[in-house]
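> forwarded from #structure-qc
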């Protein structure tokens, strides 16, 4: 659901820049107090006459004025709407800057495009066409709210509190407003506006919003008001999605909250958290802290999900404890996730419906991992899934000194979303009634000083860095399952490195190195499996190292590249034919038709 935000009644579009620049009149249709191409230095006033429109270029965006409207340009490109109707937009760069805005009683930042209408003594109305706007009420320090695309806020200047926003028909507004469809032509941010129109139309088609039988009138054209389905007051209704706004309309922080039902029940309860661009150029990231839980009564139909979303890196802070009722999933979806010393639990942590999903759809260059679980974090769900997103920029997934317990299965990574995967520092991944799968989509995988345990009779541990992908390293790792399969790739060097550790596979173990590469063993490796298969163009046990298996071992390798049990190399002993130091594996050609598929 779209998050609420405060709307300022006077619209001050502030475009702060490093040096003081004058605004410039770009276009005038009709009459205005300044001509086209005229500069408007700080302190200048500008106004339009009846049946007139104009556009002004600012350092970080633009302003359009409707008829009989007045504004003043302040220092550092600041704009203050005195009366009338104005559109303000921030330039649509890759990393969109904020347009700072002030007005009597209000202060806000614009990352998008909005229509603002101000009639002194009557009302202030702001409608977000795309992006978002953060608005702060100056009379109450620290109180702010965020409006997203499609939301409108109408404020009585005499009120001391902010009302709730409503959802409006963007398509109707955009196609009828003089400032979007008039003689000035499409605004500079029109592609973003059209994208918002399409998104809202999809929400209508999905049943998330419905039309109401009334319209709002004001200084801009009438707009049909939508009713958000997830805001229905009917206690007997069950809706697909319902949005929850943290206490105090705080769209940045979810903290110490017990979420209870208001009105209809839902299948998915969604919390949308937003970052805040600060005046000094920094960003306050969205966060979750304290104890967050949901009453079971909130949900009314399966599948049930608590979804926490963020537009930037989401910080799940130390000692955060987030849980859901029985048979309810817990999903996190953010540009990046930084989870430290937290507890995440879906239901009783047993049923398949009690899944936990951690998704990072972008990259955070300031952090080691884009999806990070560390510092004794515990995650419990019937199943657990952690991965990046398709097209997300090849994310980095890290589990560090933490425990993931999911009886029915753990999945890390996704083939269509390449991600490096690192599990280290005494981490434990436990799927005692299911399987564990790593799929890096062709990127590197590292399991270092950690334990992976799947079901001993039917479970598999599959660690796959790809047949044409990245390297796989298992260092002092302990793996236990019915079947263990590990694969890496290198064009010429080490594709799979097994550096110490123990491996218990009740049925079969497979270590496969793809490409013109090597399967390398270091240190002391202990294998308990009735049948193990090693496949690589070169299989090597480094000098001083040993591989000991209590079962049969088939080694598929190029002739002469079986670098073990020879001078200058380590040993590989098993239960097949004898050799002077013990028993040797069965060595077969790398291209043998007897070699099983991975």
């Amino acid at each position: 659901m779209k998050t609420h935000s405060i709307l300022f009644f006077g619209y001050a579009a502030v475009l702060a820049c490093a040096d003081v620049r004058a605004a410039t009149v770009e276009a005038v249709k009709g009459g205005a107090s300044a001509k086209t191409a005229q500069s408007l230095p700080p302190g200048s006033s500008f106004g339009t006459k009846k049946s007139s429109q104009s556009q002004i270029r600012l350092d970080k965006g633009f302003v359009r004025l409707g008829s009989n409207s007045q504004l003043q340009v302040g220092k550092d490109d600041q704009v203050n709407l005195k009366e009338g109707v104005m559109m303000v937009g921030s330039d649509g760069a890759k990393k969109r800057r904020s347009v700072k805005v002030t007005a009597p009683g209000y202060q806000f930042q614009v990352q998008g495009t909005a229509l603002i209408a101000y009639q002194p003594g009557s009302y202030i109305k702001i409608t977000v066409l795309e992006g978002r706007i953060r608005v702060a009420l100056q009379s109450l320090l620290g109180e702010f709210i965020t409006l997203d695309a499609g939301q409108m806020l109408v404020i009585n200047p005499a009120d001391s509190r902010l009302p709730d926003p409503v959802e409006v028909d963007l398509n109707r507004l955009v196609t009828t407003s003089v400032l979007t469809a008039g003689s000035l032509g499409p605004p500079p941010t029109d592609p973003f506006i059209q994208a918002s129109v399409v998104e809202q139309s999809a929400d209508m088609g999905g049943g998330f919003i419905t039309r109401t039988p009334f319209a709002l009138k004001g200084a801009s054209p009438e707009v049909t008001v939508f009713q958000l389905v997830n805001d229905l007051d009917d206690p007997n209704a069950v809706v697909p999605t319902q949005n929850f706004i943290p206490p105090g309309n705080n769209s940045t922080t979810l903290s110490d909250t017990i979420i209870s039902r208001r009105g209809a029940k839902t299948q998915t309860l969604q919390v949308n958290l937003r970052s805040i661009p600060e005046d000094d150029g920094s960003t306050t990231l969205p966060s979750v802290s304290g104890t967050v839980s949901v009453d079971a009564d909130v949900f009314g139909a399966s599948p049930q999900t608590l979804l926490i979303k963020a537009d930037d890196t989401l910080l799940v802070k130390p000692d955060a404890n987030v849980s859901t009722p029985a048979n309810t999933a817990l999903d996190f979806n953010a540009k990046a996730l930084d989870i430290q010393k937290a507890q995440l639990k879906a239901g009783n942590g047993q049923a398949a419906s009690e899944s936990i999903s951690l998704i990072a759809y972008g990259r955070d260059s300031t952090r080691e991992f884009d999806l990070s679980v560390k510092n004794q974090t515990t995650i419990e769900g019937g199943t657990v899934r952690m991965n990046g997103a398709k097209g997300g920029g090849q994310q980095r997934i890290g589990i560090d000194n933490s425990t993931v317990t999911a009886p029915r299965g753990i999945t890390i990574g996704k083939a269509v979303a390449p991600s490096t995967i690192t599990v280290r520092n005494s981490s434990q991944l436990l799927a005692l009634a299911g399987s564990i799968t790593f799929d890096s989509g062709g990127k590197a995988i590292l399991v270092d000083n950690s334990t992976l345990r799947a079901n001993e009779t039917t479970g598999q541990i599959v660690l796959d860095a790809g047949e044409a992908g990245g390297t796989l390293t298992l260092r002092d790792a302990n793996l236990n399952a019915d079947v263990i399969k590990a694969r890496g790739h290198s064009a010429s060097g080490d594709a799979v490195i097994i550096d110490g550790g123990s491996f218990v596979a009740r049925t079969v173990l497979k270590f496969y190195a793809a490409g013109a590469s090597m399967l390398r063993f270091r240190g002391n490796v202990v294998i308990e499996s009735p049948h193990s298969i090693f496949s690589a163009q070169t299989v090597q046990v480094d000098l001083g190292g040993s591989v000991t298996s209590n079962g049969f071992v088939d080694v598929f390798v190029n002739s002469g590249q079986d670098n073990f049990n020879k001078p200058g190399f380590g040993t590989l002993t098993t239960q097949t034919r004898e050799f002077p130091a013990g028993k040797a594996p069965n060595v077969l050609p790398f291209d043998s038709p007897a070699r099983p598929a991975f």
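QC bot note: The first strand starts at residue 23 and ends at 29. Residues 55 and 452 are 62 Å apart (CA to CA).
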